[in-house]
Structure formats: C-alpha cells, structure tokens
Design brief:
heterodimer, A: MutS, DNA mismatch repair protein, Chain A, domain 3, Rossmann fold, six-stranded mixed β-sheet, four-stranded antiparallel β-sheet, 16 helices, elongated, B: MutS, DNA mismatch repair protein, domain I, 17 helices, 13 strands
Chain lengths: ~475, ~425
C-alpha cells in the first residue's frame, strides 16, 4: 500500500495544471495545453487569435472600400488567405483604382479570388504564431513525458499496487456474490470438499435460473493410511461426471491461487502437480489419432504423478476396442493406486472396474444418481457412494435425436449383447483375474427392454407413407411376431 | 537486423540491384531508396510512408492486399514490369497493422524523416529522406489498439545449454514491454512445453540452431510466432554486458541474481527489443526471477482441458478466468490471469484470503466498487507508452494525470480501447 503513495503529488499537479479539459486525439495539431500554464504559449496564442480578428476587421473594411457587400476573406491550403468576390464584382476589383490593392489570383466559375499585400503580411504572422504555438506545445509535451518517464518506477509500483488491490477486492466481491468460502490449504494430503460447485457451469445455470447441485468429494487419506484416495465414478452420460471431475480440479487450483472457492467448505493439502485427461480431439496436424493423444497424455500422468499430485481421468480407454480399453483402464488404476499413490478421480463407463474397490484399499466407488421414469432417464446430478448399473447410452442417444429406427435397433442389439456377455469366454477371463471378486453381479444386471417397449419402438420405426402395400403387410406380420408368445 | 521468417510471413525481398536498363528506363530515385530499405529489413513487410499513406510494393503489396482485402494497384515500372502497390491511410494504419500482426506477419514502419520541402531544396530529383523507425512484431507491441487490455503480451527468449550428461537445461526470459514486466526462469528442456503453455508468449525468439533442433522444433513450431535470430543475440559471453548496458548499471548483481542461462535469455530478449524499437528503450523492471518449482505443474493438455484462460474453442467466455474475473481495471484483470496461470505450489491461500470475505474484505470490496464507479483506467501500461511517446489517446493522458494526482473524481471518460474492461 505504501507503493500507492510513492508517485509524487507534484507530477500529478503539474499534469493537471498543464493539460486542457478536453484533449484532442492527436498531439499533432496541438491544443492540449491549458491556457495560463505557459505565458509564452498564451502570448503566441493571443497573437494568433488576435490576427484572426484583424482578418475579420479587414474583411469589413474591404467590403466598405469596394462597396461589395458579399466580399469575403477565406482560407484554403493552396492559396492561404484570399479575398473572394462573385464573378459579377470581379471586374470592379480588377480595374483602377482598386486593382492597385487587389492582386488577381484565381478565376472560378462563380467566384474570383484576390490577394493583397496587407493580407499576405497578416497571413505570415498568423502562420508563424500558429507554428510557434504548436512548437511550444510540443516542447511542453516532451517535458511532461520526460517527467513522467523519470517517475516511471514509482508510477509502475503504484499501478501494480492498484492492480493487487483490484484483484483482492474482485475476489472478495466474487466470494460474497457467488457464495464462495475461504479454503484451508495445508501441507497434508487431504482433499476434502463439501458442497463443491463448478464455477463456470454454476454461472451458466444461474443465467437460466437453475440451481447447481453441489457435491462432496473426499480424497483425504483414511486415518490408518498415508496416501490419498482414488474415486471411481460411474454413471450415465450427461449425468455430470465430467463436471464433477473438473470442478474438483478447479477448486484445488483456485484455492492455491489465493482465491475463495465455490464450496461450502474445502480443505486441501497442497497439490504440486495437476493432471487432467478429459476427452480429446484428434491431433491430425501431428498425425495422431484420438486414441494416440489419449495414450500419450495417460502415459505422462502415469510416469509423472506423485503422492502430492491430483489426477483427473475421464473415460480412459474409450478410443479403442472395448476390451482393450477396459484392460488399459484397469491396469492404469492399479498403477495409480500402487505406484503413483496420488489423489485421483476416475470416471468411466466400464462398470467392471468398480469391482476393483474390493481389492484395492484406497479405491472407492461413487456414482451419479439418475432415476428411470417411463423409459426416460432423469438426471439428478448427485454424487453418491456406490456404482451405476448401466450407462443409459441409448436413452441419451434418443434425447440427442437419433432416428427412432436406429434407437429401436440399438435396443435390440444391446439386449442381445448383454445376453451373450453373460456366457462369453471373455467374461470368464475377466473373472479369472487374480483377486477379482464379482459382487452380487445379478443385482447389477441390466434388464432387457420390456416387450411393450420393443413393440412401441418397432411401431415408431414404421413410416406408412413411405411403404408399398406389400411392405406394409410384411411389417404387420413382423409386429405380430413380436408379441410375447402365450404359454 | 536479420529475421528469418517462418513460412507465412516470408517475403522474399526483390533485392535485385536497381541498375539502369536501357529498355525500360532508369529506376526512379524513390524506388532506389525503397529497395535499399527493403533489403535492409528482410522478412518484414515494409510500410513505406508516402504523404498520408503507408504504401507497400512488390510481393509485400500482394501479401498485404490479400491479407487485408484492400485494392492492389500499380505504380510505375521496375525492370519493364508493373510495380504492384497497395496502401493504407496513416490515420487508420493501426487497424491494418493489427490484422497483419494477428496473421503472423512482421512489419517495418518506414517514416519520412524530413519535410518534403527540405528535400525539394536539394534539387528536383532528390527524394525525401526516409528511415525505418520501428519494427512491429507480435511480441513488441505497446499500442492499446493492438493489444487486448486484459491480457499480457509477452515476448519470450529461449536459450539452451547442452548437458554432457542428463537432461538439457533451458533459460527463459519473458517481457511485456507494454507493462514493463520482466521475468526469467530456468527449467529442464522436458518441461519447456508445460512452461510455454503456462506463460503463453505471443512471440518467441530462439537461435537459429534451436529453431532447427530436432528435439525442440516440434514444440516451437506449435507456437503462434517464432522468430529465429542469429547466434550473436544468444551469446552468453556478452549477455551480462548487454543487460548492464540496458539498465545502465555496472553490474546486474544489485538488480537480480540470474543464472548464466537466464542472463543469456534475458539479454537476447532486450537485444531484440532494442532492435525492434530502433534505439528507443522502453523502461523495463529489473528481471524478476521465478524460482523453479514454485508453481503448480500443469501440463499443456491439462491446461487446455480445464479451460483456465480460454475454452477449448479459444474463447475467453466460458473459461474459468471469465467466470471469476470481476476486476474493474485491465491491470487487475491481467494480474488475476497471471496468478491463474502460475498457480503457487506453496500455501498461499491463508495469506491471501480473509477468514470471512463478507466481513474481512468488505472495505476492500467497497473500495473496489469505488474503482468501478470512477472507471479508473488501467495504468501499468502507461510508462512504456509514455516513453515511446506513442500515446495518442485522450483517456490515457487523463489517466496519468489522475493517477499521479490521486484525483478520485472521474468524469467517466475513458480510452475507447479500455472501455471493454467495464462491461
């Protein structure tokens, strides 16, 4: 704050004294120095302005002398000051005795222009006074510049202090307006956020008048442990997994920036490295596919993360074949748990991964709650312990507007796949992995779509207007065949 | 100065000697002067002042007319060929400069150094004396019209030291000449990408050798503007002397303790500034050293993913910074962005935040509200601009006036380009 007082008052007063109220855009034409600041400048200005009055007086005198009422003294850049009369009066000025005074300069269609020696003298005076005034102004400008430059260190310090004050007050105001709290940052490995919100998403929702559902997140080491925890987050698409992941990273970041954070309480052990792998686009410019980009980023995390790091992983392994991806995600989690020992949030659609929690002591399952209602999903955006049973991908696809025929077909395929999966040899392989225990798999079994749903889907897929009579008939038989057989 | 320009900005100068050719007549004295100046500034578009216009000729004209969508005309002949020409009015040159710089071009501004009347006195055939007064490059801007008031505009120099064993080290120096801020740091070359992502320089200068280095060039090529320079700019032996010379001190020890590599990068940066500003030396703060390992390490992918400063689409709107930035001055906004970029690894929260924002900082918040009302323009950009006397806008003059006078009563008038700060 002392910096605010450093710039000398003198300079300010000097500038206030020197500069006019209304300043021009360019210094080129002058006019920025206040009257009364420099007496030399005032004098030349007076001379310049007085000369203009003289010109006005001269015009009146000439008009009287010649008897031409319409006589004007004008100015342009080519001729400078000149006397102008209409063509009909031109002859009068060009004949004796007036032609002794008026020297013809230019004849235009309607006007004739003259100059006089007297006018020439005045013009020279005006020009030199104007030039002198401008010269003086520019000198003053340079002197002021030099003074300001001499004080630049103090001004800079004051400006920096102002900026700091601005940031401090802005963050305080943000905390008041948006209901942020002061985070506790310490040297432990805790990471406990109560009622955390995503600062950006919250703002966007607020504009639409919707509330943001706050969520807790606790990755602190349990009493008997000395490393942070890893949360496996499962849940449908669009339920808010990514938002939850990001908001925790952002809160940690804000806390260490010295800002208040969007939460009701936050305690964070200093994070030395922050990693986030959230979605990715192809990096075609560098010849890398989505999957390659994802793997490069994952490699960086697994190689560099330490116990002080915070790692956010969103859907690792989704860019490749299902079992490849699952295996990579599986091994990555084990690595994070056993060797990186970092605090981590891991969102995934591989529900098989939730089974790892039974084996790895610092691994916890969390899920984003949804409700199913008449075949539609309702997102509750609430993060709770537990795991999701399915991803509701087809429901989301429906919301996105995929053609009904595709949705219906996808449902059929899904039911088939899920039925197969139960008996598939690959499934057996996963089961056989050491220490892998299947927790009450039956409960988590996704149920195939009901017959009614299948029928409605099939009906929706039919477009009678586009069918030949024969196709229509076939469709009717197909529908009939879908009916459950009465046993 | 030698600037080897990367592809988009390359303007192969037509430096064929302007000899007289019996078939096509003599090269005019003006064109002779033009070609001479052009040859002295390879790799830059030459804005050649002719009265109320900056004119561009030859390839420059073709590039500029395409980039700016302005009319390509011709003026006279050179070696039997029409000379393509286009021009921008001096009054509006800033706009056009902005667009060219944004497209990655560099521009040499050549002014008339005397009144045309003076030249006439020397004889009818004599040409007005002209000289390049400034090189405009993305990292060395000071004009409000060319800058985003809420973002720092950094020029960065990168110097590398080869390690006989272990990883190479790089020294980084970055300067915002519009605010006089000057920082240096050193890191392992493996961390270069993450550090660049953190600082986000607008222009990077490296030595020729580094520019074509197989390890670093992929990192460098991904940046918006990289200018390779000759080796002497990155000469470690003369670095200390060049720094002392710039700060007019006998030894740098009193100003800041720099490692040799940091000093090399710092010297390269000021040498480049010297060259682009043609002798006018903007005042700089002494280099402030950022000790290694004081910031939270965030790699570039994470930085982009979390949309800290910009969204993945490159917009400010929707980023974290946009959501939390309620500063009322552009300088405050820049400082907040700086803090968000270089997040401390130490516990800083305790010191920064009052226990209860509503109580502890109410007076601060109120002070902030006062700022808002008086619309105090950001001032840390003042000194550099005052120095280069390139200030033109009314608001800025008032800004210094007020800042120094401590005058609270504002009339609400602000420089147009700063108006964006107060939505």
């Amino acid at each position: 704050m002392a910096a605010l007082r450093r710039p000398s008052r003198e300079l300010g007063h000097e500038l206030a004294r020197a500069l006019a109220e209304a300043l021009p855009l360019l210094k080129r034409d002058g006019g920025f120095v206040r009257d009364g600041y420099a007496s030399a400048l005032d004098e030349t200005r007076q001379l310049r302005d007085a000369s203009r009055l003289v010109v006005a007086a001269m015009q009146a005198r000439y008009a009287e002398d010649t008897g031409v009422k319409a006589l004007k003294i004008r100015h342009n850049n080519v001729l400078g000051y000149f006397v102008e009369v209409t063509a009909q009066h031109g002859d009068k000025l060009m004949s004796p005795p007036l032609n002794a005074t008026f020297i013809h300069r230019q004849t235009l269609a309607g006007q004739i222009r003259f100059t006089t020696t007297e006018l020439g003298e005045i013009e020279a005076k005006i020009a030199s006074a104007g030039d002198r005034a401008l010269g003086l102004e520019l000198e003053i400008f340079d002197a002021l510049c030099a003074q300001a430059v001499a004080a630049s260190e103090d001004l800079r310090a004051a400006a920096h202090a102002f900026a700091m004050l601005d940031v401090a007050s802005a963050l305080a105001r943000l905390a008041i307006d948006e209901n942020y709290v002061r985070p506790e940052v310490d040297s432990s490995l805790s990471f406990c956020i109560e009622g955390g919100r995503h600062p950006v998403v919250e703002r966007a929702l607020k504009r639409e008048g919707e509330p943001f559902i706050a969520n807790h997140c606790d990755l602190s080491p349990a009493p008997a442990q000395n490393s942070g925890q890893i949360w496996i987050l499962t849940g449908p698409n669009m339920a808010g997994k990514s938002t939850f992941l990001r908001q925790n990273a952002l809160i940690a970041l804000l806390a260490q920036t010295g800002s208040y954070v969007p939460a009701s309480r936050a305690r964070i052990g200093v994070v030395d490295r922050l990693f986030s792998r959230v979605g990715a686009a192809d990096d075609l410019a560098r010849g890398r596919s989505t999957f390659m980009v994802e793997m490069v980023e994952t490699a960086a995390i697994l190689n560099q993360a330490g116990e002080r790091s915070l790692v956010i992983l969103d859907e690792i392994g989704r860019g490749t074949a299902t079992f490849d991806g699952l295996s990579i995600a599986w091994a990555s989690i084990e690595h994070l748990h056993e060797s990186n020992k970092c605090r981590a949030l891991f969102a995934t659609h591989y529900h098989e991964l939730t089974a790892l929690a039974a084996r790895l002591p610092r691994l916890f399952n969390a899920t984003v709650r949804v409700k199913e209602w008449h075949g539609e999903v309702v997102f509750l955006h609430e993060v709770l312990p537990g795991s999701a049973d399915r991803s509701y991908g087809i429901q989301v696809a429906k919301l996105a507007g995929l053609p009904p025929a595709v949705i219906a077909r996808a449902k059929t395929v899904l039911a088939k796949l899920e039925a197969q999966d139960r008996n598939s040899p690959t499934k057996a392989l996963v089961d056989a992995l050491p220490l892998f225990a299947v927790p009450s798999r039956a409960a988590a079994e996704p149920h195939p779509p009901s017959e009614a749903e299948a029928l409605i889907g099939a009906l929706e897929a039919i477009h009678p207007d586009e069918m030949t009579p024969r196709e229509a008939l076939e469709a009717l038989y197909a529908l009939k065949a879908k009916l459950p057989k009465k046993s | 100065m030698t600037i080897h320009s990367p592809a988009p900005a390359a303007t192969p100068a037509r430096t064929t000697p302007a000899s007289s050719d019996p078939d096509t007549g003599r090269v005019t004295p003006m064109m002779e002067q033009y070609l001479e100046i052009k040859a002295a500034n390879p790799g830059l578009l030459l804005f050649y002042r002719m009265g109320d216009f900056y004119e561009l000729f030859f390839e420059d004209a073709e590039i500029a007319s395409r980039a700016l969508g302005i009319m390509l005309t011709k003026r006279g002949k050179h070696q039997g060929q029409d000379i393509p020409m286009c021009g921008v009015p001096v009054e509006r040159a800033d706009d056009y400069l902005h667009r060219l710089i944004a497209l990655g071009h560099r521009v040499a501004v050549c002014e008339q150094m005397e009144d045309p009347a003076e030249a006439k006195k020397r004889g009818n055939k004599s040409v007005v004396r002209r000289d390049v007064v400034r090189l405009v490059t993305p990292g060395t801007l000071t004009e409000d019209t060319l800058l985003d008031a809420r973002t720092n505009n950094y020029l960065m120099a990168i110097a590398r030291a080869r390690a006989s064993h272990g990883e190479d080290r790089v020294g980084l120096a970055w300067i915002d000449i519009s605010t006089s801020e000057f920082f240096v740091t050193e890191c392992a070359s493996g961390e270069l990408a993450a550090t660049l992502a953190r600082i986000n320089p607008n222009e990077v200068i490296v030595s020729d050798a580094l520019y074509s280095d197989t390890d670093l060039s992929p990192v460098l090529r991904a940046l918006p503007a990289v200018t390779p320079l000759t080796r002497d700019v990155f000469d470690g032996a003369t670095a200390e002397r060049r720094l002392c010379d710039y700060f007019a001190v006998a030894t740098m020890d009193g100003l800041s303790q720099l490692s040799r590599l940091e000093a090399t990068a710092a010297a390269a940066a000021i040498t480049y500034i010297d060259r682009t500003q043609i002798g006018k030396r903007p005042p700089l703060s002494p280099p402030s050293r950022e000790a290694a390992g004081t910031t939270m390490a965030i790699d570039s992918a994470t930085r982009a993913n979390l949309e800290l400063i910009r969204t993945l689409g490159g917009e400010r709107r929707g980023s974290l910074l946009d959501a939390i930035d309620s500063t009322v001055t552009a300088a405050g906004s820049r400082l907040l962005a700086q803090r968000l970029r270089g997040v401390r690894r130490r516990q800083r929260g305790r010191r920064r935040c009052a226990q209860n924002p509503a109580r502890g900082s109410r007076h601060v918040a109120r002070a902030g509200a006062t700022f808002g009302r008086t619309r105090r323009p950001a001032r840390s950009r003042g000194p550099a601009r005052r120095h280069s006397c390139r200030r033109r806008r009314t608001g800025k003059a008032r800004a210094i006036e007020r800042s120094a006078a401590g005058d609270r009563g504002g009339d609400g008038r602000i420089a147009p380009s700063l108006a964006r700060t107060w939505p």
